[in-house]
Amino acid sequence: VMIEEKREKLEANDLSLKNLNSEGRVLQSFINVLQSKLDEFVDAKVPMTEKISELDTHITQTYKTLASQETVKEASTKRLEHSVASEDEAEAEINRHSLL
């Protein structure tokens, strides 16, 4: 009877071991799939980081260009206003001399 009980326990333990090994293989497969997906994300991150850096550089250059153009526009507007004022003064001077 004792030998039979030990045999049954061994068979139960053997079955448990087989089930655990099977579950271990399933978990290892799952780990492999997750690692593969993680690697894909890491590989995709590098080009995205580079693209973001390129876009940031482009935005900075565009901003600097716009700021420079605004400075030129302001300077041109001031020169034009000064020129118009000078022209108005000259016209007023001519009108004064014409009236004399």
Question: Tags for this entry?
Answer:
100 residues; mainly alpha; 1 helix; rod-shaped
Descriptive account of the structure:
With 100 residues, the protein is an all-alpha fold. Helix content is 98%, strand content 0%. The chain is built from one helix and no strands. The protein has one helix spanning 2-99. Residues 71-85 have a biased composition (Basic and acidic residues). Residues 70-100 are annotated as: Disordered.
List the helices and strands and how they pair.
Layout: H1 2-99
Record field, number of beta strands: 0
The Rg value, from CA coordinates, equals 42 Å
Roughly how many Å apart are the termini? 144 Å
SSE pattern:
H
Outline of the structure:
With 100 residues, the chain is mostly helical. It has one helix spanning 2-99. It contains 1 helix and no strands.
